[in-house]
Every structure is written in structure tokens, then in C-alpha cells.
């Protein structure tokens, strides 16, 4: 059975007076940049320039945007294989991300990571993890370490609805709570795992929020298509963690416009459901809201033009960049830079 | 220099304490490691000296334990994480095989993961098939993990120090059977080096390569062989990754015969790797069959005589050496 969203606690179209115009523009900038970047990544994939596979979050940009704008520059972010949005949102330069997708030496991981493993330590992007749920326990470690070091850093860990049925999800939440770690777990509930509805394989309606109480956490559901609503929840959860009040679990309800990966058309989904969510596309909806709130249209156009310019530049940069030196395949297994496991 | 006779079990706490005193970023976590002092009493006294934030009990959540250690290691701590029995590594295998060892490579060196996973390995205590496996071969085959298995208290302390100070992830196999055994340990700080085998006895007729709890058996076997006029050279490997192939190759070039002694079940144990290296790189120096002594390829039974029947014994090591020499 597939259910469309019927929840009343979604807050689209409610203007939040506590959010400044500056923040609103920052949120819009993030959404637009991610959208344009991923549209280009899709095109490059279809042209055979992005290798392997890629998982886009077209339609889900508001979640990455809301959290990234709420985070401090030195905070940590843990992503999944669907991690382009989060990686960009933390400020990782586009050429490095595009270069990684195209397998170039200029890629953030020098071509050893690829689309599913984007990492930028410098920007707090602690890796994109392709084993469902694995990184929730690892994110705990980063949060534990920042607590021990009194660094005030907060860890934000994103994962899909599918991850909530993995054992590591449950181990991670209990562990985070008993150690009162400064961490925010964010379930991006886009209603689908690969090709299976989350409702068909989950005992509760809200795979993350309905389980929060089992770990002593509040049940928090947010409209994941509304950048401001996400920002608001993110700010509260991040502040709470930073103040030493422990972990939170947020379920952001959202939807991917396309299929699970690559050229998957996603046609296992009912058309009515797709149409409902396309009508709630965060980009045009948020733009309209900003206009209604009196934001100058020219400021929005400037953001849109900048995003396009950056995507074009990153694409040209990546296309022109050299492939990694083949010797790079033999580096960095060990901290000495090499891969030798014997002494003679 | 003064020396003390201590048990392998006591050496664990001493080795960890040495490193925790030296470096504030070293932490110990695991099930029952704090107040209880570990199920094998290897961590007794550490809570008292270092307090509850640096010596910390965890829930029975092996993935959460290794995940916490990994994330912390990526961000400035040097955790030592205990997995109570090495068999339980299977419950957190994703962390052991897929996350911890791959991160440095996949991120092209942006992150390094300096942690130690300690675990009680091997048979001999009649625990049956789910608490007795020798699984160092599981770890050895994974690119990105270093693998240590000391055979005596002094090595345990020195290799623990080396493991904690190493910038890469290390799995540290403690032999359950060795916990009550004693050895002389010098006073003061002990720091050893990973990837260095020890020649415990020099000989001319056959090289015996052993690891961990197989070492004392190989020592006995070498004595029996000496009485029979066979001179065995005995190498304690101490570490599987990095592997001290130089010491092994030099020895077999001298003795021209090789017997490896391991507790792993027959297929794909580390002895097969050592044999294959010797076959590939020193075959022209070899005069007899390259022989492996292992546990047969079966799960481990519990009853005294059944477990004894399948584990490598002094007699089997002697027989293998006699066969290799004649
Ligand atoms: C442990 C594990 N099992 C299965 C897979 C294969 N797999 C990759 S993505 C995916 C669906 C995950 O869905 P969800 O967690 O909802 O995330 P989304 O793709 O919607 O972002 C599956 C089953 C995997 N990568 N890891």
C-alpha cells in the first residue's frame, strides 16, 4: 500500500517572523545551487560523463539547505550516497564535487570516491556512506569526540527512511542518548526506499519520529519541502545539541522528483502521488513565498544567475581537468601514503 | 633493569595505562570494561586511575562501539575499543571490513582512522563454536587493517603501545588461552614496533612460524625435536599486517624447510599466505614439503577431549616437522 502524505503538522506557506531576509536568501541560494547542479549532473550522466551511478535529491533540496544554513562552519555533516546536496550546502566548491563525479584528479577525493563517497574534511563533510545506516554510529563518534574536546561542534547526520529498519539506526540512537551526544539525526523520508514503499515494510507510520520515544527523544516531524520550516527545526536541534542538551531525531517529509538512481524513471510510483509532490516543489514555492514577503525579484534573479554561472564553470573545469595519475590507485591505504603490507 | 613476572591478563591493563598516561586523547570503551574490569579482567584498575569518561562502559551494541571509535578517531581521539570475543566481530563486520579500513583510501587521505580494536581470540577454554574461533585470518585479508597477536606479556605491552601510536586502524588479538600465562616484563615504558617478527630460537633444520597461543606449543615442540636431533628455528610472527616477510624468508633460506602453526580452520588461514610467499620467492632454497599445521576445517566442539582433538598440539607440530625434514 502506498500512502500520500496526510499530515496536518506540515507548515508550508506559513511565514516565520523570526527568520531574517538574509537567512531567507541564503536558504534560496542553497536550494537553487543544488537544483541546478544536480540537473547538470543528470545531463552529464546521460552523456556518459558521470561514471558509476548517481543518486540525485531533486525535490529534496530544502532539507540540506535548512540544516546547512543552521550549522556553524566547523560543525560536522555525515551524508549518504545521496549526498551531493549536503556536500554542496556545506560550502564545498562545485568544481571539486563535479570533478569527483567525472572521475578527475581535481575531484574532492581525487577520483577515489565518486558520486557516492563525496567528502570534504575542510568543510565538515565527513563522508558519504553507501552502506545503509552505517554512518549513524560513526557520526556518534564525531559527536563524542567534540564533546570530549569541548569544541562546541555539532554533528548532523542525514539518512533515508530505509535506514530506520537497520539495526545500526537503533544502536546509534540509544548510544547517542545515553552518552548525551551533541548530534542531530535527520531522516529524509522521501516515502520510498529503492523501489519499495517504506510503508510496505515498516511497522509504524513515521519510520523515524514514531520510534523517537523508544530512545527518550521527542517526536519531530517537519515539512522537508519548506526551507524555512527545516531551518527552524534545524536551528532548535543544533542549538540544543550545542548547549549540551543532547541528541535529536528529526523526520523531514519530502520526495524525490526522479527515480532512485541514474536513469531510473521511478515509474513504480502512483502518478497522483508524484503530481501532489511536484506541486510542492520547494524551489518555485519558496521563490513565490519570498516574492510575497516583499523580497526584491532582482535579488532572486541574481542568485539564479550566479548558480547557473557556477554550474557552467564547474562543468567546464571538470571536463578540462586531467584524469588522476594511475599511480594514485596505489596511494593512501596507509597513513604513510602507500599500500605495502610487508617489509620485503 | 628490574623485571617483574606478570600475567598476560595484567599486561593488558599495564599496556593501556602506559598509553593513557602518555596521551590524553587515548580512551577505552567496551562492554564491562570499566567497573567490572573486563570479562577477562584485562582492564582492572583503569577506571580508578583514568575516570569514567576515559574508561567507559557501552551497551551491547557492537556496531555502536566501533562506530563511535571510528568517528572519534577521525576527529582527534585515539580510542581503544573492546569487542569482548572475536567471534562478535561478525556482528559489526560492516565497521571492521567496510567502514574503518576504507575511509582513508576513499577520501584520498582526508581522514585517517587511528584506533585499536582489542578482542579475545581463539579456543582452549571449552566455550564451543561461537566463543572460540580464531579469526585473525578474517582481519588479515582486509586492505587497510593492521593485525597484531602477541604471545607473551612483554610483547603485549610493547605492541599495544605501538598499536595505539600507529596512525592506522589496528586489530589487536589477545589469546584467551594465554590470559593466565606469565612472563618477565622490564620496569618502565615499553614500546615495540609493528611488523617485526621475533626469532625465539635459532636452528638449522626447519623453520617453524607460529603466532599467539601457538607459540608456547611451538616452543615445546622445538624442545622435543632437539632431543631427537632436529634443530628447529622458531619464529613468533607477532603481527600479520604488516608482515615481517624478511625474517621468514631469511630463515627458510637457511633451514630450507618450513612449518607454519596456526589455530585458524584449514582454509585460507594465514599460514597459507606465508607458504605461498615462500613458494613464490624462495622455492629454490626449499628441500621438503611446505607444511601447515592448522585446526581442521570445522566448527569447534566444547568437551575437553573433543576440543583437544582438533586444536594443533605439540605432537602434531613435532610430526609435521619430522615429515618436513625427512
Ligand atoms: C546495508 C545495505 N543494504 C542494501 C543496500 C542497497 N540500497 C542502496 S540505496 C537503498 C534504498 C535506501 O532507501 P532510503 O534509506 O530510504 O534512502 P533514499 O535512497 O531514499 O535516500 C538500498 C536498499 C545498501 N546500500 N546497504
How would you describe the overall organization of this protein?
The complex is a heterodimer of chains A (344) and B (326). Chain A has 344 residues and is of the alpha/beta class. Chain A has helices at residues 21-46, 61-70, 84-89, 94-101, 134-148, 167-178, 209-212, 227-242, 271-278, 282-292, 297-320; strands at residues 76-80, 125-129, 155-160, 183-189, 220-223, 248-253. Chain A has a six-stranded parallel β-sheet with strand order 2-1-3-4-6-5, sandwiched between helices. In chain A, strand 5, helix 8 (227-242) and strand 6 (248-253) form a beta-alpha-beta unit. With 326 residues, chain B is an alpha/beta fold. In chain B, the strands form three sheets. In chain B, strands 3-2-4-5-7-6-12 form a seven-stranded mixed β-sheet, with helices on both faces. In chain B, strand 6 (146-148), helix 7 (153-165) and strand 7 form a beta-alpha-beta unit. Chain B is globular, with a radius of gyration of 19 Å. Chains A and B meet through strand 2, helix 5 and helix 6 of A and helix 3, helix 4, helix 5 and helix 9 of B. Bound molecules: thiamine diphosphate (TPP).
What is the secondary structure topology, with strand pairs?
The complex is a heterodimer of chains A (344) and B (326).
Chain A: H1 21-46, H2 61-70, E1 76-80, H3 84-89, H4 94-101, E2 125-129, H5 134-148, E3 155-160, H6 167-178, E4 183-189, H7 209-212, E5 220-223, H8 227-242, E6 248-253, H9 271-278, H10 282-292, H11 297-320
Parallel strand pairs in A: 1-2, 1-3, 3-4, 4-6, 5-6
Chain B: E1 3-7, H1 8-22, E2 26-30, H2 46-54, E3 55-57, H3 62-74, E4 78-85, H4 93-99, H5 103-106, E5 116-121, H6 136-140, E6 146-148, H7 153-165, E7 170-175, E8 182-186, E9 198-201, E10 206-210, H8 214-227, E11 232-236, E12 239-241, H9 245-255, E13 258-265, H10 270-282, E14 291-295, H11 304-310, H12 314-325
Parallel strand pairs in B: 2-3, 2-4, 4-5, 5-7, 6-7, 10-11, 10-13, 13-14
Antiparallel strand pairs in B: 1-8, 6-12, 9-11
Helix pairs in contact in B: 1-7, 3-4, 8-12, 9-10
The complex binds thiamine diphosphate.
